Each structure stands twice: as C-alpha cells, then as structure tokens.
C-alpha cells in the first residue's frame, strides 16, 4: 500500500514537472516473472522515478549508499525498496574492499521471488553527450540470478530528455526488446563482459549518442530540416539517434561536410536574428502570430481566476524550486532532481501551513474545502505558466515577424534549398540496408 501510494504520488509529480511523458515499448515489459530494468542515467533520481512510474511493475532499484545519508532520502528510498550499493567512486581507497554481498543477496532473493530490479549500468548519473562505459554489475546480477534458477530477462530502458533541467519540458521513456538470460555455470568475468557488450548495444539503440554537444546540436538541426512535420516525439528521437549513430562513418565525405557546414551557418543566422527554425517553417506571418497570441491570451484568462486565489502559495514555491535547482547543486545532471525535491517539500509545507491556518481561523470544514481547492488551483497554475510561456514566445514571434520579415524571407529560401540538399545527401550516404523512416518521392 505504501509503495502504491508513493508510486502514484511520484507519477503525479512527474506529470507536473514534465509537460509530456511519452512511453514507448510497454509491450516489451513482462507482466510477471523476474525482470532487470537496465537504463541509461542522464538525470539523477528522475531516472528511476520515471521507470518506476511507467513500467507497470513494482521495481526495487539499486542505489548508491551515499543517497541514504539523510532522513528524507532514507525514508523515500526505503519506501521504494531501494537496495544500497557501495561504489568505489564514492568510497575510494578509504572504503577498503567494498562488500556488496548483502546487496546482491537481496537482489538475488527478489529476482528469485519473481520481482523486478532496476539498475543503471553506467553507475554515476552524468550529462555527457553519450553513454558512459557500462559497468558489469547488471550483467553479473542477471547471470547470478539465472545460475540460481530464476528465468530472468533484462529489459533495456532508454531515457531521452528534450531539456533535462527545464520545468515543463518533455521526456521519452523507451522499453527495448527483452534479453532472456540463459542459465550458465560460468558467471565469471568473460560472460559478464559479453553480456555487458550486448546491453551496451541495446541501450545505444534506444538513446542519442554523439561525440560532443556541438555535433549533437548540428545533427539536431539536420534532423529538424529532414523530418516531415507533425511527427511524434519517439520518431524525432529515433531519427536523431540514427543521424548520430551513422554520422561518424560518413563525416569525412565531401557532401556530408558541406551539409554540416551549411547547416551550422544556417543555425548561426537563425541565432543572430533570434528566430527559431519552427517559426521560419511556419512562414513568419504577422497575422498568424497575432492570432496565436490572441488565442493564448484567451486561454490564459480562462485559467487565471482559478489560479489567483492560491497564487501566493504556488508562485513562490515555483520560484524557490528554480532557485534551489541552480544554487544547491554544482552538477547539471542533478538540477532537475533538486527542483523536484525542493518543489515537493515547499508545496507540501505551504499546503499544510495554509490548511492549519484556515482551520484555526475559520474551522475544520472550511479548512477541508481549502485543502481540496489547493490542488485544483495548483493545476490551474501549471496551465497559466504554460500559457504565459506560450504568450511570451508568441509575442516574440509577432515582434520578429514585424521587424525581420525581409531577412526571414531570404533565410526561408536558404532553408528550402538546404532541406532539399539534406534529403539528397541522406539518401546518398545512408546504409543501403537501413530502411528509411520517411521515404521521399524519388528516394
């Protein structure tokens, strides 16, 4: 009951923090039986929360023991059934020989009972542009469980964040094809390394990996120009993954180098004008931009009356969570987690204080009504914040449509020519065995 209630609350929290949580591949998650969820690790505690709240199974995660150092985290992780692991990165030489026998024993027992375990083979969360070298812990766990008679499968999990640190961004959770682990008497280093190589390939098939962020950004612009309009988030991510996966093999070809240079020049020109590629694709019409502003303003006015009564509680909570995310952690991959935890604590404290104050002032019935209204007003606050962001973008788009129309027309011509060149070059250099996601006429 405690786990179910906590999972529901965490799912609600994710839906608040992220504007969209898209889940793909749930058909790959076994409904029962021992499962190891093995995912990439770009966003600290957000990563296990997303897997827990989307996979449909009760999952116990392996977590570094340093996370259990505070009462709040110890209570949270304990309620989720997390298993503490000692890591060399945290304890170093001072930790001596690290003893994780009890942790692995607990996970073996859970898998033997048909439960699910979650683990991040990269070890430490990070914000690099590609997967870190996988550790063999997940493979050793899978092989050890299979050797003990558990028919375990490993489900690779790909987590792709559009803007990892940003409030009200989007995230894609992908569950890949399960890897059945055959029982073997040999659970030594070689089988573990071989299984880790398989897992690495599976995770790379679910994530975007580039040599550096400049390359990832350039290829993302190529992807935007290449893709048809209106595709889903999972299709965008898969297209970006393909571009980054195949780019190293063709990067020195003259047509590819020309396209990348031209794309980077195009993106630099967009940055100079303060225009997004999406705006340019829409046509930079002042009339259309004005209509979008008017429509957004109308929707904003619908939600505003519901939001205003509790605004003194919600808006400071949002502001404080944002400040906490930037000030309380030096690591970029932990900012979102800090924002979420700070936001939860601040909002719950504000709700409790407001309810108690009203109970003392007007009595318990009015306090119950206030307690019921606060979440409704909180939802309205999210809608208002979304609309304010849209309104700010819309006003900016309208201003640019009025001030840089001439330059935008010239750039739109360049965009059309560049798009045609990208489609042509992609068809020229792509592996022949790779089926096109979006076949073009004549390709």
Uncertain parts: none
In sequence order, what are the helices and strands, one letter per element?
A: HEEHEHEHHEHEEEHHHHHHHHHH
**Could you tell me the radius of gyration in angstroms?**
25 Å
Alpha-beta classification: alpha/beta
What is the level-2 CATH architecture name of the largest domain? 3-Layer(aba) Sandwich
> Would you count the extended β strands for me?
8
**Helix content range:** 55-70%
Number of helices: 16
CATH class (first level) name of the largest domain: Alpha Beta
Shape: flat
Quote the beta fraction. Answer: 5-15%
Mean pLDDT: 91
CATH superfamily of the largest domain: Glycerol-3-phosphate (1)-acyltransferase
* Head-to-tail CA distance between termini: 56 Å
Largest sheet: 8 strands, mixed
Total number of distinct structural domains: 3
What would the keywords be for this entry?
Glycerol-3-phosphate (1)-acyltransferase, 60% helix, eight-stranded mixed β-sheet, 16 helices, 443 residues, 10% strand, alpha/beta, flat
Question: What would you say this structure looks like, in words?
Answer:
By secondary structure, the protein is of the alpha/beta class. It contains 16 helices and eight strands. Strands 1, 2, 3, 4, 5, 6, 7 and 8 form an eight-stranded mixed beta sheet that branches. The radius of gyration is 25 Å and the shape is flat. The protein starts with a helix and ends in a 14-residue tail after the last helix.
């Amino acid at each position: 009951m405690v786990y179910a209630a906590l999972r529901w609350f965490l799912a609600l929290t994710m839906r608040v923090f992220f504007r969209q949580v898209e889940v793909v591949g749930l058909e790959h998650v076994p409904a029962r039986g021992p499962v190891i969820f093995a995912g990439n690790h770009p966003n600290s505690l957000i990563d296990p929360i997303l897997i827990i709240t989307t996979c449909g199974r009760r999952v116990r995660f392996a977590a570094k023991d340093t996370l259990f150092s505070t009462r709040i985290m110890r209570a949270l992780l304990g309620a989720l059934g997390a298993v503490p692991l000692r890591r060399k990165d945290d304890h170093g030489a001072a930790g001596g020989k690290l003893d994780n026998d009890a942790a692995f024993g607990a996970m073996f027992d859970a898998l033997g009972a048909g439960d699910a375990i979650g683990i991040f083979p990269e070890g430490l969360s990070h914000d690099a542009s590609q997967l870190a070298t996988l550790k063999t812990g997940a493979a050793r766990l899978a092989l050890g469980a299979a050797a003990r008679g558990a028919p375990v499968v490993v489900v690779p999990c790909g987590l792709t964040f559009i803007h990892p640190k940003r409030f009200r961004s989007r995230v894609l959770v992908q569950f890949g094809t399960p890897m059945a682990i055959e029982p073997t008497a040999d659970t030594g280093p070689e089988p573990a390394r071989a299984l880790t190589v398989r897992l690495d390939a599976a995770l790379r098939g679910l994530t975007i990996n580039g040599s550096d962020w400049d390359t990832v950004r350039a290829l993302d612009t190529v992807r935007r120009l290449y893709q048809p309009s209106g595709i889903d988030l999972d299709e965008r991510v898969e297209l970006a993954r393909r571009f980054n996966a195949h780019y190293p093999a063709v990067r020195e070809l003259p047509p590819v180098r020309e396209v990348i240079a031209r794309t980077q020049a195009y993106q630099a020109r967009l940055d100079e004008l303060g225009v997004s590629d999406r705006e340019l694709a829409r046509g930079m019409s002042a009339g259309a931009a004005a209509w979008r502003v008017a429509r957004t303003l109308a929707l904003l006015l619908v939600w505003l009356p519901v939001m205003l009564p509790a605004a003194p509680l919600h808006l400071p909570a949002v502001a404080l969570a944002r400040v906490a995310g930037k000030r309380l952690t030096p690591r970029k991959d932990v900012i979102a987690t800090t924002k979420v935890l700070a936001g939860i604590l601040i909002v719950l404290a504000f709700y409790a204080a407001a309810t108690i104050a009203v109970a003392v002032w007007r009595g318990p019935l009015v306090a119950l009504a206030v307690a019921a209204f606060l979440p409704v007003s909180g939802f309205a606050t999210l809608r208002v914040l979304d609309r304010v962001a849209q309104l700010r973008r819309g006003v900016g788009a309208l201003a640019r449509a009025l001030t840089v129309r001439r330059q935008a027309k010239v750039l739109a011509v360049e965009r059309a020519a560049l798009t045609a060149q990208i489609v042509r070059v992609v068809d020229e250099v792509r592996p022949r065995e790779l089926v096109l996601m979006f076949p073009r006429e004549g390709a």
